[in-house]
Amino acid sequence: MTKVFSDGAVNPLSVAPMMDHTDRHFRYFLRQLTRHTLLYTEMITAQAILHGDRPKLLDFSPEEKPVALQLGGDNPQLLAECARIGQDWGYDEINLNVGCPSDRVQSGNFGACLMAQPELVAQCVAAMQRAVAIPVTVKHRIGIDDQDSYEDLVKFVTVVAQAGCQRFTVHARKAWLQGLSPKENRTIPPLRYQDVYQLKKDCPELAIEINGGITQMEQINAHLHHVDAVMVGRAAYENPYLFATVDRDVYQKTDLIPSRAEIIERMLPYVEERLRHGDRLNQISRHLLSLFNGQPRAKFWRRTLSDSRLLASAGPELLEKALKAQQSQDILQPV
After folding, report:
1. Contact between 166 and 2 (Cβ < 8 Å)
2. What are the φ/ψ torsions at residue 213 (nearest 5 degrees)?
3. pLDDT per position in the chain (335 positions), as tens?
4. Whose CB has fewer CB within 10 Å in the chain, the N or C terminal residue?
5. Closest Cα to residue 61, out of 315, 266, 319?
6. Single residue among 184, 216, 249 that ends a domain in this structure
7. Does residue 1 have a known ligand-binding role?
8. Which letter does DSSP use for residue 7 in this model?
9. Which residue blocks in the chain are alpha helix, DSSP H?
10. 6 in a domain, yes or no?
11. Cα 197 from chain centroid?
12. Is residue 1 part of a domain?
C-alpha cells in the first residue's frame, strides 16, 4: 500500500526526514506554504519510542498531515510495535531508514548499512506491514561502498518488494560507510539519477521516488517525467519559500500563493499556543531564519531571530516586530 490520493495517484512530492530539522515546528511552518506535500519526522529509533518520552517524540499538530513517521532499527518485532504505536498516534505512513550512513547509526546496525542485508530489511518491512494498515515504505541509497552497481540496487529493491513494500525513496547517491561524514555523503558521491529512472522502468509496478541534490521547481518537474515522486531535502530548509508555489505547480490547486509576511502572520497563533505549552521561542524561530533568503534585508531578519537577548523573554510579538522592521529597516530594540 502506497500513500495515494483519492484518485489513486501517488503523492508526488515530499520533504525528506532530516535530523535536527524536520521537527513538529518546522513541519507546521511548512504547512503554511504547502497543504499537500508529504512531510516526515526526523528519524526516531525504535528504542527511543519504546523506552523514551513518546509525547515529546511523536506528538504533532493535526494541521501537519499528511505526515509520515520515519523509524530507525533492525529488529522486526520492535519495529512492528513502533509501527503500531505510530499508526495509533495518527501518522499516515511508516518509513524505514536504510539511508543514514553515520557511525552512530551503523553501530546500531541500521540506516545505510542495512543495504547489505536486504533479507533483514524485508523481514522488518513484513513485520511492520502485518502490524498496521497504513503504508510501510523504505528510504535508501543506490548502494553502499563497493556494493553500488545497478544490479545491487535492483536486488535490494526486489527482495524488499517481495515482502510487500510498494514505495521506495531512493537517494541517488551511494554512501561510503567509512571515510566520509554524513554531510560529505550528501555531496561527494556523484548523483546517479539515471539509475533511479532505470529502476522505475524495470519495476513499473512500484512507486519510485527520487531524492538528492534537488533544489529547484524546474528539477522537480523534470524528475516527475521519469519517476512517481520527488523528495526534497536540504533545499526545503535553506529555501523554504520554494514550497510556496508547489500546491499550484505540482498539485494544480488554485489557492493564492502566500507572501512571506502572510506566512509569518499565520505562524503567530501557533507560536503563542506552543509557548503556553512550555516550548521556547528559539525552538520555533530557528526554523524561520531562511524564509527571507534572497530578499532585501534578509540578514537583518536572520540576525534578529538569532539574538539570544531578544529571544530570551520574547513571545510572538518579536516575530511581528522583526517582520515590521525587516520591511521598514527600523532598528529593533531589545524587548
Report:
1. yes
2. 70, 20
3. 334 443 446 899 999 999 999 999 999 999 999 999 999 999 999 999 999 999 999 999 999 999 999 999 999 999 999 999 999 999 999 999 999 988 777 767 789 999 999 999 999 999 999 999 999 999 999 999 999 999 999 999 999 999 999 999 999 999 998 888 888 988 899 999 999 999 999 999 999 999 999 999 999 999 999 999 999 999 999 999 999 999 999 999 988 899 999 999 999 999 999 999 999 999 999 999 999 998 888 888 999 999 988 898 889 999 998 898 777 754 444 43
4. C
5. 266
6. 249
7. no
8. T
9. 24-31, 46-51, 54-58, 76-89, 103-107, 118-131, 150-162, 182-185, 193-202, 217-223, 234-238, 246-249, 260-276, 281-285, 298-305, 308-313, 316-328
10. no
11. 21
12. no
If residue 95 lies in a helix (H) or strand (E), which one and from where to where?
Answer: strand 93-98
- Both 221 and 298 in one domain: the answer is no
| Whether the Cβ atoms of residue 237 and residue 272 lie closer than 8 Å to each other | no
Domain check: are 286 and 164 in the same one?
Answer: no
Is-catalytic flag, 165? no
56 marked ligand binding residue: no
Whether residues 244 and 268 fall in one domain: no
- Please pick, among 82, 100, 113, 165, the residue that the annotation labels catalytic: 100
Please report, for residues 239, 260, 291, 326, the alpha-carbon distance to residue 295 in angstroms, rounded to integers and kept in the order given: 11, 10, 9, 10
Give a yes or no: residue 75 inside a domain.
yes
User: Is 212 marked within a binding site?
Assistant: yes
Report DSSP letters for 173-231, one per residue: S-B-SSSS-HHHHTTSSPP-HHHHHHHHHH-TTSEEEEESS--SHHHHHHHTTTSSEEE
233 among the known binding-site residues? yes
Choosing from 205, 230, 249, the residue where a domain stops is 249
Q: Is 326 annotated as a binding residue?
A: no
| 115 annotated ligand binder | no
Report whether 171 belongs to an annotated binding site. yes
Examine the domain organization and report whether 289 and 241 are in the same domain: no
Note whether residue 95 is domain-resident. yes
Q: By residue range, what is the domain housing residue 85?
A: 13-249
Statement to judge: residues 134 and 19 lie in one domain? yes
Domains held by the chain: number: 2
